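Readers of this paper often ask what the protein records in our data store actually look like. Nothing more is needed to write down the fold, since each code stands for a local backbone conformation. Below, we set out a record of this kind in full and without editing:
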Amino acid sequence: MASPFLLLLLLIPLCLLVLFLALSFLARPKSVRIPIKNRHVLITGGSSGIGLALAKAAAAQGAHVSILARNAKRLEEAREEIKLATGHMARVLVADVRDPQAVAQALEEVGPVDVLVCNQGVFVPMELEKQDLEEAKFMIDVNLMGTFHLIKAALPGMKSRARETGLPASIAIMSSQAGQVGVYGYTAYSASKFALRGLAESLQQEVIAHNIHVSMIFPPDTATPGLAEEQKKRPELTTIIAGSSGEMKAEDVAKKALDGLKEGQFIIPCNFDGTMLAIATAGLSPQRSAVTALFEVLGAGFMRFVGIGFQWNWYSTIQNWHAKR
């Protein structure tokens, strides 16, 4: 007679198989592959950092790249960098994403887009009490409202293009790990990035019938000119807490982002910490992959325990920092 332990060992893989099959049936939207070769990829914030790295990576894979930013001189320099790196000439668009008319005019000038990457972003770290409200508004206007302006201007052309070509289109939104978990000194910034999650989840439901697929990219601190400036202004506690996540190169983030975008991933983490955060914060977000869904289901409880451990560490750090002062 089989022992209970042996029966349990036999039942575990069977239960996992049943769960996997159920998730394969339930996972939505369905899996998709988004090609970028010979397609129009528009990247905002494309004159430096992650945006420029994304533009180079997309151009190297045969995409027709357009980059949009505010600074005409830096855009021209970026275009030369892209040409030297890939042999492809990118189109440049000068516009401030805070201005819906300027964005609409730029999108009309460049024509229909197949892949829109809303990568623009600004960050001024400071405790809310000390931060000027104009700085908070600036972050929300660029990070959140700028994304609204871009998507609203691009959508009609994207729908027509997807219908004409029969190929899936993509809208990728650059968030941050600070858009998954709040951190000391990031009050306004995190608010602007958390809001993008709600935008993306709702938008995916609105555009899925048009074969348009939404992705959210969650990088950690990334070695860019913007990060160097931001680190000069960070409160000491922000540096202590946020510094534990590590730093990535812009090129590595760009590769992760582009690979995830092409697979239609809704949540695109960029490192191990990001993957753990993605599991911990999956919630009711769309999930195409039954394998990833399985990890989310099985790992949710454990990741909640780990998250409580992180919160203990952060709040202990804050308490100790204040006690010393």
User: Anything to note?
Assistant: The mean pLDDT is 93. Residues 159 and 177 are 30 Å apart (CA to CA). The two ends are 68 Å apart (CA to CA). The longest strand covers residues 212-218.
